[in-house]
Amino acid sequence: MSTDVFLAILLAALMNAAWNSAIKMGGDKVAVMAMTTLFGSVISLCALPFIGLHASTEWWLLALSICIHTIYHFVLPLAYKHGDLGHVYPIARGGAPVLVTLAAAMALGELPPPIGVVGILCLSMGVLAFAFQHRARGIGHRGTTYALATSLLIASYTVVDGLGARGSESALGFAVLLTIGDGLATALVVLCWKGQAAFRVDRRTLSLSAVAGTLQIGAYWIAVWALAQAPMGLVSALRESSVLFVALISTYLLKERLGLHRIACSALVFAGICLVKLGQ
Predict the structure, then answer these.
(1) pLDDT tens, residue by residue, 26-47
(2) What pTM does this model have?
(3) Domain that holds residue 230
(4) How many domains does the chain contain in total?
C-alpha cells in the first residue's frame, strides 16, 4: 500500500462518515437513502461516457455486488431508525475488517504482515468499543441487530467488490457501473414499496440527499480503486477509521456526549491506523 493509497482511503473514510451522518439527520431514513443513492446514480451516469464499458468487466460479480449493496441500503436506515449514530455506526463498521481479512486469507491466501494484522485487530476493537457506552445507556436490541446485519453486508460487498475490481479491466469502471446499478435498484424498490410519495421531500431533505449522494459516490469510487491496489483487510480497516470523524459529527452536530470513553476509543483506533501504516 503506497502513501497515496493510504491517504486516499482516509479521505474516503471522512466522506463515508459525512454521508452516513446525513442519513441519520434525515427524516424518513429509507426515503433519504433512496434519494441519496439516486443522486449517486445520476453522478455516475454523467461519468460513464468518460469511463466507458469494458468487455472484461466481471459482470456476475457486479450483479452480486449490486444485490448486496441494495440490501445494505435498506438495512442501514433501519439500524439508524432504532439506534443512535454513535451506537449503530461503530458496530456496523467495526466487525467488517476482521471478516474481510479472514475471507481474503481463505479465498485468496492474502494475509497482511503480522504488524498489519495487529493494526487491523486494534482498529476494529477501537471501533467496536465506541458502541459500548451507548449499549450501557439502554439502546434497544433492534438497533444492535440491524447494525450487526449491516456489518456482515459491508464485509460481503467489500470482498465481492475487491474481486470484481481486480478482475475487471478498469477498477473505476467497475465502481461506476456498481453505483449506477445499486442506486437505480434502491430507488426502484422504494418506488414499488412506498410509491412516488417517498420522493416528495422537503428542500432540507433534498439538499441533504444531494450532498450525501455526492460524498457516497466519491467515497466508494476511492474504496473500490483502493481494493484493487492493496490487501482487502488493510483497506477495510482504514476505511473504518471513519468512526473518528463520526465521533466528532455525532458530538458537535447531533449533540451526543463525547466523554473519556470516546477519547480512549479514538486513541485505540489511531494506534491501529499507525500500525497498519507501519505494516504496509
Answers:
(1) 667 777 888 888 899 999 999 8
(2) 0.84
(3) 3-278
(4) 1
